[in-house]
Amino acid sequence: MRLVTWNVNSLRARLPRVLEFLAEHAPDVLCLQETKTDPSAFPHDELAAAGYVAADHSGGRWAGVAVVARSELGVSDATSGLPGEPVEDEARWVEATVGGTLRVASVYVPNGRELASEWYAQKLDFFDAMAKRVGQLRDDADGTPLPLVVAGDMNVAPADLDVYDPAAFLDVTHTSEPERAALRAVVDAGLLDAYRVLHPDEVGYTWWDYRQGHFHRGLGMRIDLTLVSPELAQRLTRVGIERDYRKGSKPSDHVPLVAEWA
């Protein structure tokens, strides 16, 4: 199984790159964030022509998430929105069952903007809702929950290893201890950070600012994560960052993060 998460920062602008990626890497599942499309404009037809189906939660110009899967696997039992999220109309969470055996959620966590702001408080509340939902999904009534993946743009670098210079991120969002603690609570609800399972000490960034040549200077952050349930973590064979998709024509500021398991 090959699962990818990618914040495309506008699916309309990035659709040729997405279709290129599907043709080149043939993932079984692709979690998208910041699709920024109206529900009626989501490119179901283009994806179908490439051999994929999607469960999307589209909200217009901002946010938007989707779980895309091979047509033969299908997506079922799709639900949009995260129970308990502080702002319900921002299209930040969608989940679906892929192939009848894997529960997948694509998430775009709020940015938080500034410490001590209302947006920062909403970000922490969103993480709290995530942790509760993960707990529900892992605490299945009959004791046999489906394997679970929660993948997307978490807008938090989990540790100092995940930013190019910790000193440059003092007193700002994305690295504050309350955010990191809130993210750890999601993980502690029953998941593992797939990248760190296979690369415990390796620097690997998934986002670079468009400005000042940050990508070429190596000034990045690891804020896109694939969180997997323990039974999947034991079967991981590869977790890789596709840096080449930050190059070329009209790149997103994020790159695809690929996880594979036997």
Automatic annotation (TrEMBL):
<protein>
    <submittedName>
        <fullName>Exodeoxyribonuclease III</fullName>
    </submittedName>
</protein>
<keyword id="KW-0479">Metal-binding</keyword>
<keyword id="KW-0460">Magnesium</keyword>
<comment type="similarity">
    <text>Belongs to the DNA repair enzymes AP/ExoA family.</text>
</comment>
<dbReference type="InterPro" id="IPR020847">
    <property type="entry name" value="AP_endonuclease_F1_BS"/>
</dbReference>
<dbReference type="InterPro" id="IPR005135">
    <property type="entry name" value="Endo/exonuclease/phosphatase"/>
</dbReference>
<dbReference type="Pfam" id="PF03372">
    <property type="entry name" value="Exo_endo_phos"/>
</dbReference>
<dbReference type="InterPro" id="IPR004808">
    <property type="entry name" value="AP_endonuc_1"/>
</dbReference>
<feature type="domain" description="Endonuclease/exonuclease/phosphatase">
    <location>
        <begin position="4"/>
        <end position="254"/>
    </location>
</feature>
<dbReference type="InterPro" id="IPR036691">
    <property type="entry name" value="Endo/exonu/phosph_ase_sf"/>
</dbReference>
<keyword id="KW-0378">Hydrolase</keyword>
<dbReference type="InterPro" id="IPR037493">
    <property type="entry name" value="ExoIII-like"/>
</dbReference>
